[in-house]
Amino acid sequence: MLTKRIIPCIDVDLDEDGNPAVYTGVNFEDLKYTGDPVEMAKLYNEAGADEFVFLDITASADGRETMLDTVSKVADEVFIPLTVGGGIRTRDDIKETLRAGADKVSINTAALENPSLIEEGARSFGSQCIVISVDARRRYDEEGEYYAEVDGESCWFECTIKGGREGTGVDVVEWSREAESLGAGELFINSIDTDGTKDGYDIPLTKAVCDNVSTPVIASSGCGGPEDMYEVFTDAGADAGLAASIFHFDEYSIRDVKEYLDDHDVPVRL
Questions:
Q1: Inter-residue contact 76 to 65 (CB < 8 Å)
Q2: Strand-pair partners of 191
Q3: 136 with 129: CB under 8 angstroms?
Q4: For 23-27, 48-52, 53-57, which range has the lowest pLDDT when averaged over its residues?
Q5: Between β-strands 153-161 and 166-171, what pairing exists: parallel, antiparallel or unpaired?
Q6: Do 163 and 137 touch, CB atoms closer than 8 A?
Q7: Which of 22, 111, 218, 270 could make a disulfide contact with 240, Cβ separation 3.0–4.6 Å?
Q8: 61 domain residue, yes or no
Q9: Domain holding 134: CATH number?
Q10: Domain containing 186: what range?
Q11: Distance CA 203, CA 171 (A)
C-alpha cells in the first residue's frame, strides 16, 4: 500500500514593505502575519515533511508574476518535492517556475480559464509536474452536477478563481474529471468553507472528488490535528493531507501526526 503523505503549506503574500511573508487566515480571509517563507521552509524540511507547498496567494488576483526569487531561495532549503502555485498562466510560467527550483506547479485560475494549458503543460514537462488546484465552496441550489449531503442538506461544490474571490459556476467534480483527462498528475482540493477553522477537512467534498477520479488527491483546509488526517485518509480516500496552522503554531509536529497515523494503521513514512 502506498504511504500517505503529510504536506505543510505556506501561503505567501507581499507585506507592507513589499517583502514576501507567510500569512494564515480563516475562510481565505483575515490574514495574519506568520513568518518568513525561507526560514519556515527550512524548518519543515528538517521536520520530516514528505513534500512542501508554496502558494503565492495574491499573484493571480493582482495579475502579477509569482515570486520566483523567493521560490529559488526556498528550493535551496528543501530537499523534498516542492510544489509552487499562484500566478502561473502560461507554458513559459510553468517552465520558469520549474527552472527556479519547483518540482511541480499548482494551477487554478489559468487552468479553468484555459483548460488546454493542462494538456500543454503535461505534454511539455510531464503529468507529474502538473497539479490542478481547486478552491471549492458549497452551494445549496440546483445549478450543480454532483451533489453530497452536508449536515442534512444537499449541496454541490463550485470552483472559484482568483484566490476564492470569484465563482465560476463550474462543478468541482466535473472539473476534476476533466482536468484528469487533460493530463493533470495530481489534484489539490481546497475547501473555502473549512479553511483555517481547524474543525476538520471537508470530507464530503474530498470524498466526492476521490470517488470520481483515479488521480492522486491532496486534501486541504480545516485540519485541526492528527484525528482529522486519519479521517480524510480513511473516510474520504485522500492520498495526502495538507495542513498549515497546526504546524505553523507548533500545535502538533509532523512527527506527532505521523506517529498517530502509524499507531492507527495508516501507512506513512517515518
A1: no
A2: 136
A3: no
A4: 23-27
A5: antiparallel
A6: no
A7: 218
A8: yes
A9: 3.20.20.70
A10: 5-263
A11: 17
